[in-house]
Amino acid sequence: MLQIISGHAPCDTRQSFLDCIEARKVDPKLVGQLWNCTDTLPGEYCHRLAIPPGSTYAQAARLLRQYWIRW
Questions:
Q1: pLDDT tens string 9-61
Q2: Which residues sit opposite 37 in a β-bridge?
């Protein structure tokens, strides 16, 4: 998978991240790949993570980094 410096992430990378959220697992590699991704996280995942609608994958990745030890 390609590391995203800024901007859009590949669809398969974003989907893998969503799958991790559903499984309540954190993949540090995916968190790093989406650290600067400006794509909008789907609303249902914003709700699951208790972040504002319209948040980006980068915002979600930064939040999950804080909790990966607990998950």
A1: 999 999 999 999 999 988 999 999 999 999 999 999 999 999 999 999 999 99
A2: 7
Is the Cβ–Cβ distance between 41 and 21 less than 8 Å?
no
Nearest-angstrom CA–CA distance, 17 and 29: 10
Which helix (H) or strand (E) element contains residue 1?
Answer: none
The structure tokens 């991704």 sit at: 37
Cβ contacts of 59-66, under 8 Å, gap ≥ 24: 60/17, 60/21, 60/34, 61/17, 61/30, 61/31, 61/32, 61/34, 61/35, 61/37, 62/35, 64/21, 64/26, 64/31, 65/26, 65/28, 65/31
At position 17, the amino acid (one-letter code) is F
Residue labelled with tokens 């974003």: 14
